Amino acid sequence: FIISIIGAILLAIGFGLKGNKSIVFEDLKPVIADSTKVTQAHTYKDINKLDIDVKDVNVEFREGKNYSVRYEGAKSSSPTVKKSGNQLQIKGRLSSHSIRFNGMSMYDDYYRNSDRNKMIITLPKDSKLDELNLKLSDSLLSQVNMTGIEADRVKASIHDTKLDLRDANFGNVELSAGDSDISMTNTVLSNGKLDLNDTDVRLDGGSLMQVAMNITDGDVDYNNLSIQGGNLRNNDGDIKMSNTQIQGGYKIDDTDGDILVSRVTVDGYRVQSNDGDVRLFEQTTSNGNVLEKNSNSDNVLDIISNDGDITVKDRKSTRLNSSHDQE
Q: How far apart are the C-alpha atoms of 285 and 280, rounded to whole Å?
């Protein structure tokens, strides 16, 4: 009944403004919806710093002859693009949830824009950025027809966003994410920290070098990685690690979740679950007891879970088959 009354009022407003037009609530204020679509294109030279701050826009990186930015989509979400020296800044317009009424029904317009708003950023082949800054919300960041993105320093903050990268090479990484999905293939991350909330992570190929990853509520899947130092701390989620080579040791600390490790090359293990079953190859235990193999080595995979099962199987390191194994 209430919805019918609101619909009738909005319909009257639409007719009063010379036609049955869509009405959008912005901050509880009814306004006529702007459905105008635009296309913007810019070409630049000599870019070594890229700042991207957009919302409700899907961002694609592509390979081309020049640095360029092309936007296709709703005028209300169109970004401003500014070059200052060798720095290129791309900033989207502020937007908020809007309830749209088309004369017959009401719906939330917020999640529709990103499906039709697209930004294509073209980088020359073999180009390298000194700095890449990302701030994305309700977006998708991906690569199309390019081998990868390389940047000496990366600072990123994403929310409700899917990050899908391939063959990227990022140094000095600072990444924070909320309510997102991160997928990286054959990507190198070095010397950095990832703080993630309600975010799943899949890394397939590539390497982690001295990277600390802290997650609250998210699953992690490592496959075919090369890891040099660093650690993974997960507050609530399952962890899988397979076909991975470790150097310099690595620590996994999971407060609430199961951990599965298989076909990992490392010199030693130390495994413990305070409340769960533990299997380290042929050894098994539970409820706080520790299992070890070559745990005095400098290259140890140290795994601890407060509440969850841990399984380590299918050893790959030949050292673990030697007479120096520590039971």
A: 9
